[in-house]
């Protein structure tokens, strides 16, 4: 094949792999990484959507009070648009579920609207408490905390799988 044809095939393969990765399918043309199976634990975020709902209710009360008292600036549609956007954002954040995926040699989760992956060699230790599982990382990265209270994770199941993962990779586990 000519070099330009090979470049075109490589570009198309990269595009296809990025689309397949977004849908959760295996990558094309890669051996090992795409064929890995993951155990996925899903939670439910309710704290931040509740906060957004409270802000929307507060803004609604203020807007209605200002409109009934005759303030002309509060009669615009922009105030109601902002309230509706807060409500839509609360619904989106509630429906978008946080997760923890544990594979053979890596763990991944969604943090700050991006999927973060950590390899087994970058994990310092696991701390398991009642209602919490903490993954302490080596280096500069922040610790990953999976909570039953904040994100409604099933921490007992996560603790069991994390203990198996730690035994495979000789990572210390601290149980409290």
- What is the string of SSEs from the N terminus onward? HEHHEEEEEEHHE
According to DSSP, the number of beta strands is 8
Tell me the span between the first and last alpha carbons.
61 Å
Major β-sheet strand ordering? 1-2-3-4
Strand fraction band? 15-25%
Secondary-structure content class: alpha+beta
Silhouette: flat
Please state the average pLDDT score.
87
The unreliable regions are: none
Radius of gyration: 23 Å
Helical percentage: 40-55%
Number of DSSP helical runs? 5
Query: How would you characterize the largest beta sheet?
Result: 4 strands, antiparallel
Descriptive labels:
176 residues, alpha+beta, 8 strands, 23% strand
Summarize the structure.
The chain is an alpha+beta fold. It has helices at 3-22, 47-68, 77-95, 148-151, 155-169, and strands at residues 39-42, 99-102, 106-111, 114-119, 123-129, 132-137, 144-147, 173-175.
Explain the overall architecture.
With 176 residues, the chain is α+β, with helices and mostly antiparallel strands. The protein is built from 5 helices and 8 strands, in the order αβααββββββααβ. The chain has a 4-stranded antiparallel β-sheet, covered by helices on one side. A 4-stranded mixed β-sheet has the order 7-6-5-8. The longest helix has 22 residues, at 47-68. It starts with a helix and ends with a strand. 10% of the residues are buried.
């Amino acid at each position: 094949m000519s070099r330009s044809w090979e470049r075109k095939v490589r570009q198309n393969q990269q595009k296809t792999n990025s689309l397949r990765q977004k849908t959760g399918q295996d990558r094309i043309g890669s051996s090992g990484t795409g064929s890995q199976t993951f155990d996925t634990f899903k939670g439910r975020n309710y704290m931040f959507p509740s906060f957004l709902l409270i802000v929307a209710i507060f803004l609604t009360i203020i807007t209605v009070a200002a409109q009934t008292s005759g303030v002309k600036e509060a009669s615009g549609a922009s105030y109601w648009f902002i309230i509706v956007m807060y409500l839509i954002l609360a619904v989106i954040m509630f429906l978008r579920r946080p997760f923890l995926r544990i594979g053979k040699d890596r763990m991944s989760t969604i943090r700050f609207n991006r999927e973060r992956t950590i390899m087994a060699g970058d994990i310092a230790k696991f701390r398991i408490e009642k209602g919490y599982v903490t993954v302490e990382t080596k280096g500069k990265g922040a610790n990953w905390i999976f909570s039953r209270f904040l994100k409604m994770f099933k921490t007992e199941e996560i603790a069991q799988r994390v203990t198996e993962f730690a035994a495979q990779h000789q990572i210390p586990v601290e149980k409290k």
